[in-house]
Design a protein that fits this description.
This protein has helices at about 60-80, 90-100, 105, 110-125, 130-150, 160-175, 180-195, 225-235, 240-255, 260, 295-300, 315-325, 355-370, 375-380, 385-390, 395-405, and strands at about 5-10, 15-25, 30-40, 45, 50, 270, 275-280, 285-290, 330-340, 340-350. The chain is of the alpha+beta class. A hairpin with a 4-residue loop joins strand 6 and strand 7 (about 275-280). The N and C termini lie far apart (about 75 Å).
Length: about 400
């Protein structure tokens, strides 16, 4: 960020002298005459404002005008950066005077980057911290892309030509995976949709079919019933951290709840008489009712009805890999990822792929394989369509064939 200072033109004068605004940025110096005059004896060198003196009774209004100038230059500089424009003295002068004259406020025009900056600040009050991190990362890459192109990117710039260049930048210059690139495009569409709703954007090019979100099927794993049994039977009593992690993970595997929900289960969520867990999910606000699996009942009883406090997600994921490894989940799994435009294939032990989200995926897949109706599972997982649900569960072609063999059509 630049730094604004106010300096007297003739600090040793016995008479009134001009006050200059000097703005330092990127090892450059921008000087601007404020038009304000003051006798040096009434000037506070340290605060760079007029002294609060009875001999200079107009000091409140005088200092207020300097505050307006300081805010104006800071805003002008920030707008240029947000618009992906490299500031220079001429641009600073033009934008400062526009700020001071109120031209921007009068026209109501808002730049794309200016809007995104404000939208992210607003979102901090009602969006999850993880969402804000995604917003900031996408915004950062957009600004870096604009700088690499040496051109301003505004609402009118978001067309198919921009899309193709931006994808090339993310894939080849930034070496991002296909799904990460898709997340960037999806978030940019979120920004554009919000700007359109508020009347700042009239360009609908981003809604075209070819302006699509890239996505490839992930190699996320699920744990079958036998593997969950191995985890449950693993004796981790010598390591309280791993034992607690194991129990919380199993709660997720047998309830289908997200990490943010199964780590917040309280005694009042349990109806022992009906053997049902009832909770309102954080992400969707939906109230779900889930039958208590025998494993869930045992774990609740183990902790006298009060589940232990969870670790943060990153720590729990680290412990989970140790839990899965000790439980013997060491078979090699091939993972495929498109990164930097190249398909990469690697193999790793299954335990390395186990995360807190594996619990929810395992729940949905195991129930589906057990012939529980999809609509019943979706009532718990919160999937709105069967299509999105089927993309979520993880079954092989062989498992699907085995499942169909039990269908009356093949009998």
């Amino acid at each position: 960020m630049g730094k604004a200072k106010f300096k007297l033109k003739e600090p040793n004068s016995k008479n009134e002298t001009l006050v200059n605004l000097v703005f330092y940025y990127n090892y450059k110096r921008f000087k601007y005459s404020t038009g304000e005059k003051i006798e040096p004896k009434f000037w506070n060198l340290k605060n760079e404002r007029a002294k609060e003196s009875k001999q200079f009774p107009q000091y409140p209004e005088f200092n207020s005008r300097l505050d307006v100038l300081e805010n104006g230059i800071n805003t002008a500089y920030r707008r240029l950066l947000n618009d992906g424009v490299q500031p220079n003295n001429q641009l600073l002068k033009t934008h400062l005077e526009a700020e001071l004259s109120g031209k921007i406020l009068e026209t109501g025009k808002k730049s794309l980057f200016g809007f995104i900056d404000e939208f992210i600040k607003e979102s901090k009050f009602h969006k999850k911290k993880s969402t804000i991190i995604v917003y900031n990362t996408v915004f950062k890459y957009l600004k870096e892309f604009a700088a690499s192109q040496r051109k301003k990117i505004d609402f009118e710039s978001i067309d198919l030509e921009f899309y193709n260049k931006y994808l090339k930048y993310l894939v080849h210059d930034r070496d991002l995976s296909s799904n990460t690139v898709g997340k960037h495009v999806k978030t940019l569409k979120t920004f554009m949709n919000e700007a359109t709703e508020r009347g700042y954007n009239k360009n609908m090019e981003y809604k075209k079919r070819k302006f699509r979100v890239t996505k490839e099927e992930s190699d996320a794993v699920y744990l079958n019933v036998d593997e969950l049994k191995k985890i449950e039977e693993a004796d981790l009593s010598a390591s309280p951290n791993l034992d607690r992690t194991k129990d919380l993970f199993l709660i997720g595997c047998y309830t289908g709840l997200r990490f943010s929900d199964f780590t917040q289960i309280k005694p009042e969520n349990i109806d022992h008489e009906k053997s049902i867990l009832q909770i309102r999910t954080q992400k969707t606000g939906q109230r779900v009712s889930i039958p208590l699996h025998p494993t869930v009942k045992r774990i609740i009883q183990k902790y006298n009805g009060e589940l232990p406090r969870a670790y943060v997600n990153q720590v729990m994921n680290k412990y989970l890999k140790d839990v899965a490894s000790i439980s013997g989940l060491k078979q090699m799994v091939q993972i495929t990822m498109t990164k930097g435009g190249q398909v990469q294939k690697n193999s790793c032990p299954k335990y390395e792929l186990v995360t807190t989200h594996t619990a929810r995926r395992s729940f949905a897949t195991n129930l589906y394989l057990a012939d529980v109706p999809s609509i019943s599972i979706m009532k718990i997982t919160g999937h709105k369509t069967e299509r999105s649900f089927m993309q979520y569960i993880k079954i092989s072609q062989e498992q699907n064939a085995d499942k169909l063999l039990n269908h009356p059509f093949f009998s």
